[in-house]
Fold each of these.
Amino acid sequence: MSMTGSVAGTDKRGIRELGAEEKIGWDEVQQGVVLPSFDGTTENAAFLKPEEREYADFNSYTATVASWRIVKPVYNRDICIDCQNCWVWCPDTSIISRDKQMLGIDYDHCKGCGVCVEVCPTNPKSLLMFNEAADNDEELANWPVKEKKAK
Amino acid sequence: MAKEYELNDVEVWDGNFAASQALRQAQIDVVAAYPITPSTPIVEGYGGYVANGYVDGEFVMVESEHAAMSGCIGAAAAGGRVATATSSQGFALMTEVLYQASGMRLPIVLTVVNRALASPLNVRGDHSDMYLGRDSGWVQIDAYNAQEAYDLSLCAFRIGEHLDVRLPVMVHQDGFTTSHKAQNVYPLKDAVAYKFVGDYVPVDEMLDFTRPVTHGAQTEEDWHYEHKAKQHKALMDSRPVIDAVFEEYKELTGREYKRVETYMMEDAEVALVLLGSSVESAVLAAKQLREEEGIKAGVISPRCFRPFPYDLVREALDVPSLKAVCCMDKSAPGGAMGALFNEISAAAYTTQSRPLITNYIYGLGGRDFAIDEAKRIFKEQKAHADAGHITTNIQQFSGLRGPKLGFYETRRG
């Protein structure tokens, strides 16, 4: 996961495989399949950064839910202008950004839809889609160059 | 604060008005509704109470019954006391969402005015819609007249909202026969009725911002089964809660309800099993036959249609004198024996008396079921009892024009 600084240090996102939890019986499952987001109660969750929240086991934040992805976005920090377009458009909050600086992709929740690449305005793009098995460093080394406008 | 509604000790109400008054007295927070004959006056009445200050609630107009129950689910998940009403085609359109309400364990009250299902389109009363709901995971209670529609609607909130149950509840009444027939009804004063129903206690409500929750989650093969089993257990466990609520209501009003109603069954030789307003006709027929011809006739009615009272039906049938029983289904059986026949037979199979059991389909689309016809069917049961075996087809049709229609013969000697 390409994450930097304090976010990676404290973050618990994607720490478990979805479905890897201990399977409880019918007598212990949550009535009405009601899933609490946090352990206990919270007064200020809306004002906390995700990595500071006490997510409950039922919240998919701490689960890896991206196993079906077959193509992935790769992020090139050297070209990015921190416009936040990808952060705004990502349907799965899988663009990690702090203080309006783009930090990278949350590969534990990204489904590979490619919307971030579509909305990236730089030339060349700062995000490109690659096969899931591709090596990120290799692709970054071979990043496309700026396209000249046709005259 | 809602205004008090001035009520006489005895009011002349039809079943719809009785049900809407019960909803008002329970001080529903939200009614999301779409009109359909014959249940429209229930939600229309509630809308009037909101507009005139008799209830502190919200009336939400929606574009269909599917949306009506969806709105009810949203409001109930948010933490409100919620109810609505429907019939027939509206009930059918609501069916998908009925399963959501019960699976999400939201104690919504649905007052159903039973009406036939198309095609052919028909606005009259039969039990097709009630039967359509029987696997939906709701508690289903049946009222036979306007007084019962009022009483059982109040009881429905207590049953569904009980913390051991937390399931939605339908209160059924027969279209037109009950819903539009004005009868004497003895209502409770507003304060007394509300005290009986009690304040709503929300569970896992979405409007508790200190504890955000997700409602309506998806589960696949690793979890779905456990949730459905837990839900079924809650529905089965509602039986003692229903008994206790009926007992408390009897202490308050003197009016007694049971999950299975029995009439003159102590020494009965023959019995009819049926639901709805026809129960009253059958009871009158049984009384007359006892007086006029000495036939020991009785009536059984599973007032609580769901959870099906297997326990009490078995008790009701386990009368040593009982020889022949006819189960009467007011719903097109769709290529099978009627549902009551199947369920009553299954319960009877584990009794000592093991009466002969036959099935009549009757009253479809509002076809009249009169006392004389009930007497004729009782006498037919007496003929089975005297012969020691079923002397007719096992499934027959009551009040049907044309050549006699019937299916299956007995293989018991």
Note: Residues 48 and 86 of chain A are 21 Å apart (CA to CA).
Amino acid sequence: MSYFRAENISLHFGGLKAVDAVSFAVEKGEILSIIGPNGAGKSSIFNLISRIYTPTAGKLFFEDQDITELPAYGIAKLGIARTFQNIELFENATVLNNLLVGRHRHSTTQLWQELLFLPSVRANEKAHRRRVEQVIEFLDLEPYRDTLISGLPYGVRKVIEIARALCSEPKLILLDEPSSGLNVEETDDMSFWIRDMKSELGITVVMVEHDMTLVSRVSDRVIALNYGRVLAMGAPADVQGHPDVVAAYLGA
Amino acid sequence: MRFLFKTDYEDDIRLFPHSGYVWSYGTLFVLLAIAPFVLSSYLVSQFVFVCIYATVGVALLILTGFTGQASLGHAAFLAIGAYTAAYLQQFNVPFPVYFLAAGLLTGVIGAIVGFPALRLQGIYLVIATISFALIVEEILARWESVTHGNEGMRVKAIQFLGIQIPRDSPTFYFMCLALLVLTIVGSLNLLRSPTGRAFIAIRDSETAARSMGINVSLYKVKSFAISAAITGFAGVMFAHKLSFISPEMFTLQLSIEFIIVILIGGTFSLHGAVLGAIFIVMIDPFLTYLKDDMPGIIGGLAATLGAGSERAMHIQDSVAAFASANGLKGAIYGVIIVLFVLFEPLGLYGRWLKIKLFFQLFPLYKRATFKRQKIYVKSERNR
């Protein structure tokens, strides 16, 4: 069985079919890209998986478990982390606190223990801090530990959002347009990091992306969407050359 | 300027980041410890009110400042704490028991209020909490078998281990101070652990909080419960300090005073609660001064400036009429809130930080350091 599976998921807003009976599977350890013109339903699929939206129909499976009925935080607890297209960081907190929130799914301490800050809480905090430091090192975020998010430039915020997702030690990470708003060098870095996520951290990656260079450099497989439907699926070169995809982007 | 070289993860967790903190807080502690033996009983009494207001301020900061859930119902929580104490005291329940019971009951009621609040945001939540406060006020006035209605209730002095602790004794002051210090330490502990970070996450982006595995509803209810429980504890001390409680003491104006405490002090740090409490407690003597002395001073001033004695009397009378006008307090509160929101959104503690930074960086302080930025990249789509 596949690692992650979407079976005929749909999302309808009244008469508008944002996602229309889309099925796909993600294998463990692969990088899957979802491409498509604006409004094709790419981000909607992410929002369905992370349960910001509730699917109108269809089912989602992760590690052979039906996750269609789980609440948003339950999805995250299973090890599915995500980033957002329009950066959703905790603006008035430091970078460190943002990343530590990413550790939330691993926190085991009880409220009363935290009120007293018992040694067990202290030990836990240090362990979290150590894990966060590894992510900081992985993504070269050392200069920003104690800076407030509101004072940081866009490119850095983008990386911090990925860092926050990585701090939760996810099994599956959903990257929503990781390169949007980044310059050429930053996009280069991003492509290395995405490949390292797969090879070094063993994380399965699903990403929505518009930058075809990045897509073809990192992806194992590509899905092309238009009007909420799957147009093509397969190796990056095949999908980009697929007549329907070309027609969707350029007009027939 | 001091540079901190962090060599251990402990450096990020410590409550006192460096020795300077230990010295300044140590000095403050010593001063507070000798205060009741040095200062006049009036000032000590004011200190007690500062402690109580600051405790409620910290509670409100947890809910409003850190979890982002506004509340205009904290006077009701205070009332529930106070009335629980007064009610249980009638049956000779020992102080520690009814103290804990008051906090616990208020916490549970806070959690119950938190549930409907899950679906409300911003101004609607404020309206809901106001309604809650009005309901409680009405219940206190009508449930005469328990609360004695508008007659109010007498609260006897605290009996603890066979000793009586009068409301103006140093011991009572130390109890209030201890409650405040414990509240602050507990809150700081909370804020440096997962729960506190979850609160901050919910304040800044509920969507992101959810997708990081935070059960937003649970933590909102937790925040309400903690905030209410602390306010309940403060309510017990409040009841003992006043020695008499009646429903008209816990009106909307008191809730607004609590909001002013954190708004003026600064909503981003616990320091704000204390500074705001000092401010709000000191405003009463100021108003009394305004009432008693201002007319005479202005009248005298007018007389020396050459106005006829009749005219001076007239001026004095009109100033006196203004100073004792009904609702002057509320009007002044309103003006203060507006001025602070417009010109000092970070509050008194923010101002203090700015002054401190000015001297730390002297002469390199940049005027735009704390300038408010407009944030353009903020999505409201995924609410």
Note: Residues 156 and 243 of chain B are 6 Å apart (CA to CA).
